[in-house]
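Reminder to self: keep the SMILES exactly as supplied, no canonicalising. Ligand is zinc ion.
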Amino acid sequence: MAASIHPHPAHQNTIESETKMILQNKLEGHSDLVNHAILFDDEDGVLSISDDKTIRIWIKRDTGNYWPSVCQIIQAAATCLSFDQQTRKLFVGMENGQVTEFLIGDDYNKLNKEKNYPAHIGRVNDVYYSPQSNMILSVGKDKCLHRYCTETGRKLSTFIANSPCTCIQYDELSSLVFIGTALGEIILLRITQAGFSKTSILKVHSGMIRSLAWDIDRQMLYSASNDHVVICWKIGEKKGTAYELQGHNGRVSSVCLIQQQQILLSGGEDQMVIGWSMKASRLETPEWKESDVCERCQTPFFWNIRSMVDQKKIGLRQHHCRNCGRAMCNSCSTNRTALPRLGFEFKVRVCDECFSQISDQDQKSLARLYDSKHSIVSMSLNERKQMLVTCGTDRVIKLWSINSLIEYASKQQSSSN
Ligand SMILES: [Zn+2]
Ligand SMILES: [Zn+2]
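Structure tokens returned for the bound complex:
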């Protein structure tokens, strides 16, 4: 999965105007990195956590701007959160290894500390609260996954991975836990009476997993990684199908899913938010074939000394066609094209045979690109409000209306039905 700088296709621009992400508000004032922010369902308010050791609640005033109604200072940098809109229970993971449970007051102007879970040694990277199961799952830099009972505060089970754990998703129905690691693996575990039992490991990413999203209806897992790639894993099919989505120019820090319209949103350090239509039929990226000669013109590659001598030819560099996976010399693969059905939204190398067969329809984009104008640390989605929240390395929280994107996707769906 070579990461290269590539121009985004020009054909995006024509459609972008009808599916804009519209910036509604900017929240500023944190004195350090904002790690996460979410919107409340039943109030015009935002909750944010930051490396500046604060948890803030911002309420929209009559002026249309958001002002803090709570700014609680805690003992360490707040790194991750999980919030349940119904019970208003908030779990915050911290740099010192602790997870703290808070209860947010009815009028959103109070934050009451309820419990401490001394979960990890060092930074907590993600926390997941399940109100149905009365438990929290947390992962940390210490390679541990812990499960705590939220009623008793007791630790129920622990799993130790072989590298720091970075993010969690959970499937309530099957009690399946997905954890991403710093080495780019996704570990699947089942919660049993005896503890965690390891089910399998998904290995395709070549960089740290930054974020996971779970589509409970379609049993699909989405992963975002530092290797610039987003992968969708068809967990339910049990055939090991995985689609790669390549459109980012930098590390992908966050993924979230608009469930109803099946749009996956990915955000990255390249300042882009990409909306991927997951309704579209996609194909798996072909495996790269290994060969000592170009599979089209038979010219030897440079390590194939014998053929070079026999054929009196200079060895060439090996390239691969992204469409068929065959090993090619440069002159047999001079064309570049986008292959959206294979997940390539930008132009990639294809062999001359494949190029002659690729139609305009094959090149039609299956994603929409938006410039968030800040390097994205994390994102959160509020489907009810049709809003997306992005936190940037610029310490700014941006609130975006994604209304037109959802409307556009709904129209596409009804016209294709
Ligand atoms: Zn060739
Ligand atoms: Zn080809």
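Points to follow up:
The first helix runs from residue 13 to 16.
Residues 321, 323-324, 326, 350-351, 353-354 surround zinc ion (ligand 2) (CB under 6 Å).
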